[in-house]
Amino acid sequence: MTLRLGDVAPNFTAETSEGKIDFYEYLGDGWGILFSHPADYTPVCTTELGTVAKLKNEFAKRNTKVMALSVDGLESHKGWISDINETQQTEVNFPIIADEDRKIANLYDMIHPNSNENFTVRSVFVIGSDKKIKLIITYPASTGRNFDELLRVIDSLQLTANYSVATPANWKHGEDVVIAPAIKTEDIPGKFPKGHKVIKPYLRTTPQPDL
């Protein structure tokens, strides 16, 4: 069954490069990113895992843990991690799932329908503290993922989960946000005391409320 936004992310236990892990226990009460890779020793994914390792503090600021997945085994993962650390000048600091039986890949619908049946597509799932799926993005093999964009999206998701706002195009942390249409204009001052602008009756903005 295809997973959709708002669905509960399926829990699983898996052997990883950091031992056996229960996904829900690993996430605790925080947020999570689960992202898949076609195979170990692939060039684009080598740069991606190195980038994620370097962003550990940024994910930690957002109470977000990362877990990667590949259909290769633990011994292969160990060798690949050594290559990542060497070539990307970092230390891989998150678990990589060894999904040799493709159980988790199938659970999250990560097997590429138009490619090798053994390859997972390069998918990203952002999972909220309520264990529900907040974002799904799938990339082609030729295009590296933009992890700055994933950090931006997590900022938006965490903000909009707590306030009646949405974030406009290209929004970044610290910029003005859009007030939800359900909020009546006359009620805005009580809910958003930092002020607001009425551009159109349906388009009202206010400074980011949690700053």
UniProtKB/TrEMBL annotation:
CDD domains: PRX_1cys. Residues 3-159 form the Thioredoxin domain. Signal peptide: none annotated. It comes from the Bacteria. Keywords: Antioxidant, Oxidoreductase, Peroxidase, Redox-active center. InterPro entries: AhpC/TSA, Peroxiredoxin_AhpC-typ, Peroxiredoxin_C, PRX_1cys, Thioredoxin-like_sf, Thioredoxin_domain. It holds the Pfam family 1-cysPrx_C. Belongs to the peroxiredoxin family. Prx6 subfamily. PANTHER family: MCG48959-RELATED, PEROXIREDOXIN-6. This is Peroxiredoxin.
